[in-house]
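Reply to dn_fold:

You asked what the input looked like. This is it:
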Amino acid sequence: MARLHVETWAPDYGTPLEPDLEMAPEDGNVDVAVEVDGAWEPMPGADDGVPVVAFVDGVRRIDARLTVDDPDEGPVAGLCGSFGVGAVVWRRDERRSEIRDVRVERLAVLGGGRSEVLPAAGPQLTYRTEAVADHDPASLIRRFHGAMRTAESDLAEELALAGYFVIADGPLNQLSATDKVGYIKSHRAPYLPPDRLKVVPELGEGERTPLFTIGQYRRYSWYSRLGPREGGHSWTGVVRCEVSAALPLQRASVLADRCAALLPRVASAPQVDPRAPQNLVPIAALERELRRRLGEPGLVHRGLREAVARAVPV
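and this is what came back:
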């Protein structure tokens, strides 16, 4: 019998279940037999004692909306925004964590292929300019968000190549053969067929599904539960993870087992995080620090207006 539940996430953060059927794979495009060729059951995680884990994430903020007032072409929309990326390095062997490799970038995005340079609003408020060809406001957001995702991906790859086990918040962009896991908090498509999807509600804390692949993506994926359901719905605390299919299958299985065992240890609690348990404690701490590094929004906005006003010829 179906039951109604109040979602644990605060409403301002949406929901961990955000269906988008356009993202669903075509029939026959999912391989559920890459690891287990037969009936599926929940699989226990296994902590192999990895000594250091690096969590990578980014935050972004629209600082101001822009308008290029061209007397010939008419007004052209733009935006300027700031984003920061960084990492929390969890040294399990030393029982300590540190935030490192923080990078803050300022970006102005203009429509219509415009290339006007935004005047500097101070030593910490210099924006580089990028242009999009069309005038669709959504294109401005996509270019801005894409720049942050690229910066996140580059940092995750650097740390993985340096020998860290990396958990990157969000899907993977660079599909290299490194120990790097994409961590996806919300679910937008039913990737599995019904006979395999029914295994997800059966997962216990620290367990995962077998690996599967989606045809158009070069990655192994799996579902895992971060904590006990405690009266929640059947997908409460479930996340999806992925690694590059450039890795050998055996290595992908090791990383999946490792994640299933480790992630519950850093899952957040409802009383301290509005996106608990999916928003991991290291990620939440990193987000707070990155937002601080972006600067106070009101001061940034005022600085931008004053800088542009000074640059306009009288």
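DSSP finds five helices and twelve strands in the chain.
Hope that clears it up.
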